[in-house]
Design goal:
The chain is mostly helical. The chain contains ten helices and no strands. The protein is elongated and about 60 Å long.
Amino acid sequence: MTTHPRWTDEYWLPLMKLYMRRPEGVKPMYSRATVALSLELHIPPQTLYQQMFRIRRPDTELLRRLTARYSASPKRLSRDVKTLRRMQGMGSGGSFYDGVEVHETFERDFRPIPSRPDLQPVMLILTLDLYFRLTPATMVRETPEVAELARLMRLKAQTVVEVLDAFQECDPYLNRAPKADKALADACHDVWQRYGNDEPETLAALAAQMREYFK
């Protein structure tokens, strides 16, 4: 199985700690805890998700040794993870990549949008999925789906409407004049370029997984 080029065997320890968190087992790909570890390691959530299945069914001698060492001793695992983080210079708020230039890819989806710290691209992705389920006339605060998504993402319904309006400006079939603020318009345009031309089922599947981040 091909893994991410940045993956090293040291990462099994923090990933195993995540796997053993109650309820023990494979965590959702976009759970907040999985994403937090992804950002820490600069390893995509998809890779961590796949690797957790290998923890569930160890397929190498190293994994079998780690499972034997830690499965009955979560305190030892926590201690060794703390030691690893100190050795890697992580400390409080640090990273395995402190002092190293890292080209971020997926990480940007979970960072605040410049000039719009209330929003992240992951929120725009979920809103784009909703966009394709509604008509322009229903992209209002009173629509139950709009209110439900706002509650999930802990936003005001009007903010979700602003994002829907910005996506209308990206939609070539509507040809709407620009009204959204530039930071939001640029972020929505980027998400539209990435997902707006995909099959709706593909975006819907991704959005369903990403909803876990807000639960």
